[in-house]
Specification:
2-enoyl-CoA Hydratase, Chain A, domain 1, isomerase, about 50% helix, ClpP/crotonase-like_dom_sf, Enoyl-CoA_Hydratase/Isomerase, about 260 residues, 2 domains, Enoyl-CoA_hydra/iso, about 15% strand
Amino acid sequence: MSTTQLLVERQGPRATIILSNPAKRNAIATATARNLVDTLIQLDGEQDIRVIVITGEGECFSSGGDLDEFLSTVDAGGTQLWETGEPWQRLFSVIPTLSKPVIARVVGPAMAGACGLVAACDFAYCTEGAKFGSPEVKIGLFPLFILPALLGRLGERHALDLALTGRTIDAQEAYRMGLVNHVATADEIDTLVDQLVKTFTHLEPATVRRGKHAFNKISSVGLIEGLELARGLRPAFMCSEELRRGIEKFFAKKEVKA
């Protein structure tokens, strides 16, 4: 399957979305952002797919938004800017709503909007040579659409650091900040991503769906409201068939060991 500057590969329970615009370092045009949202929603609805991976073609994850398109909108009016912002708003808000885990596989630079995309993904694995940054401030702009994802993933200190200085960070600093889960060699990254995919294929899809929903709801509020949400969400887990099957498997294993 292919769409504008996107490729989709299916391999068993895994679907991989490839940002494919190598002539522009896999830059993401507005049309691509719109197609990416539609593709994510489509894959989330496919029963055979358990995990979605997003990566870039070649040795670059993505340079961010399409510079040529950006320059063409500099003098646009407020109405046009509002309308063209809609796909970007949807892109950075859709991943938390999906029922399936989304993994960013980052090789090379992930800059500007692409850095925000990495932050928005549920998990992120990168190679040692990966670079991250949000340099918009250097040209008089500010990374508005990716800011909520950066804040949620990095916290206020680190998010403000990247957004207001525009500096580029390497893979190890991204790991220390919490932007990525693991830093791997180029030879290791696919093995590690495959292992994570395999982990989810061994879990109940409904439990993963409920767990991701619960995590995103609770993490977006304070302590007291979070505990209220936890209390309200608990029956969905406690009364599920998945829990009953899990308990049966657990005690069956204990009997075998005994």
